[in-house]
Amino acid sequence: MDALRGLALVMMYVDHIPEDLLNRFTMRNAGFADAAEIFVLLAGYASWLAYGRKIPKDGLWTVTKRVWHRCWKIYLFQMGLVLISLLSIYQWRRFWVLPVDFLEPELAHGYSIARESWRLLSLDALPSNLNILPLYIILLGGFPLFYLLIKRRWWLALGVSALIWLGVNIDPWFNFPNWLDPDGWFFNPFAWQFLFTIGIFGSIVAGKHDGNFPAIPWLKWGMGLYLLFSFFEAFPWEYWGLPDLRLLHVPVPAKAYLSPLRLLDVVAIFYLVQSSPWAKRFSEGKIGQFLALYGRHSLEVFSLSTVFDLWGRLMFASWGEIWILQFVVNCIGVSILYFLALHLDKKKNRAKEKAKLKVSHS
């Protein structure tokens, strides 16, 4: 799971810079879904491992306090990202001309920030590219209540979640307000909660089968064929100068409220990966462990990558898409993210060793 989440983090970093040459090779070019769906689904998967399994032992209230403490930490990271983004853009504009779409018009001038800062603090205003952590706060914050529903009737929990998602797809107006966007939050929490829920149930099922999904041949074939269809429909044939091989010319499925085609795409990927012995061997190999390092520290890696994304877009906008900037953004940027994850991993391991020593001496 950590390897897949690490891969999603790297792809999200690349995808958030439109001028980056590497975003031609990320999963959004090979299907309806992209790395954001993987990230949210695995967030649900990890929430059960980190919190759901511990409630019977530690108690609901104790675990709930841990969940809300985590939400508070994510909120602080969100506020830090907002502050860094605003300061970076304002300072950059002192030296180089930027189009207004680097910041919503309502926040493009300093006086708007002073007057409307409460909107940023209350998550009523979500600048573009800073909207996935607020979604995570909402989904994770509601986990204890959802746990109670699961324990009472698991099928009822899954059914209610699916009905809410279906209702939003029928009428997308049902959303949280966003002062910067009349359509509301880009990642509609009422739709995306279903993907988070699927991740939770995926974690429960995998836990009953040694961390994997049962490999059902007909289901694997069906999922594989759907992903093949998704690839032909989503691949940018014209961009690569190739003949258009789309069969149905399906319009791009809506991401904001997680349309069915996107949902099925990410669920198919998730099932095939979690039911494949090859995927497990890959995750245990050198490349898999390299990616898992990013995945184990997803909040910190994602937050720093968001800052690098912004700086990369600023550099490309002002200086062009030259090769040296491509090198800085991709090679140096990904390397710094790796060393951050490596540092955090060593720090975590040292803390575990100290805890073991205390227990052994007591």
Automatic annotation (TrEMBL):
InterPro entries, per the entry: UCP028704_OpgC
Transmembrane is among the record's keywords: yes
Segments forming a coiled coil: none
Alphabetically ordered keywords of this record: Membrane, Transmembrane, Transmembrane helix
A Pfam family recorded for this sequence: OpgC_C
Ranges annotated as spanning the membrane: 30-51, 72-92, 132-150, 155-174, 186-206, 218-237, 323-344
UniProt entry tagged with the keyword NADP: no
PANTHER family: BLL4819 PROTEIN
Protein name: OpgC protein
Source organism (scientific name): Commensalibacter intestini A911
